[in-house]
Amino acid sequence: MTHAIVLIEAERGAMTKLGGLIADVDGVAECYSVTGAWDLVAIVRVRTHEQLADVITKAICGLPGVVRTQTMVAFEVFSQHDLDAMFAIGE
After folding, report:
1. Rounded to whole angstroms, how far apart are CA atoms 82 and 86?
2. Who's near 83: CB < 8 A, 6+ residues apart?
3. If you count Cβ atoms within 10 Å of the first and of the last residue's Cβ in the chain, which end, N or C, has fewer?
4. Angle at 23 between CA 16 and CA 21, to 5 degrees
5. 3-state class of 33 per DSSP?
6. Could you tell me which CATH number the domain at 2-87 has?
7. Nearest 10 degrees: CA dihedral of 71, 76, 79, 80?
8. By three-state DSSP, how is residue 47 classified?
């Protein structure tokens, strides 16, 4: 499984709708509006790097109102949620 954090700069007029559109993209687990230099943060979880490229370059960057993105691919995941899910397999 490949995890990535995608920072998104949006056009001001797109802010009210863009978060929901991003959240509806297959592979996007969550989307947050945030303060600071970026407007939105999307958490992407896909099986392969190829899928990651499609989600970001085709789906997210193709949405109207997206100005630019910056992607950080995770090396390791330290989430209690993920650990609980892993040990729950077969229960």
Report:
1. 6
2. none
3. C
4. 50
5. strand
6. 3.30.70.920
7. 170
8. coil
